[in-house]
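Deliverable D4.2, example record:
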Amino acid sequence: MKGQDLIAIGFVKTSYGVKGDIKVSSYSGETEHFLKLKEIFLKKKDVQKKFAVERVLEKNGDILMKLSGLESPEAAKMYATWDVIVPREFASPLNEGEFYYCDLFDSVLFHEGHRVGVVKSVIDNGASALLEIECDADAEGKKRTVLVPFLDQFIGQVDTEDKTIELKETWFFE
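Output generated by the structure prediction step:
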């Protein structure tokens, strides 16, 4: 499975205990959906590995997972910082007006009906998400990248079906 069929729901922080468990942090802060997982993918850059889930526990806001084939702390620690990837239907359910970051990729940004660029990635800096926008080419054919905070004061209507996002302010591009 590739692309938007899979969603990153967290990342491996480190190993836990002596039996090869991994300690996982949830990207959304939600943890209930982890408890139902039967298999996951761990991914780092272009490498992706599938694992059967033997058990899942929640402890102090972290998720502890035992994956088939990881039998020692050393084996588990090799996956520190890897993303935990699952099919979309096993990710945290969305509420009205929510969407996954991956649903924003390749969306076209418009300001007052004029196209200004395309979303290439989303960077979560802790305070807010930043949309990495590849601006359309200027008169000289040069492209540049700008970061736009994904906040209500800057972003209007988001349509993940049509892949469009309304931009309220343009000073980011000056």
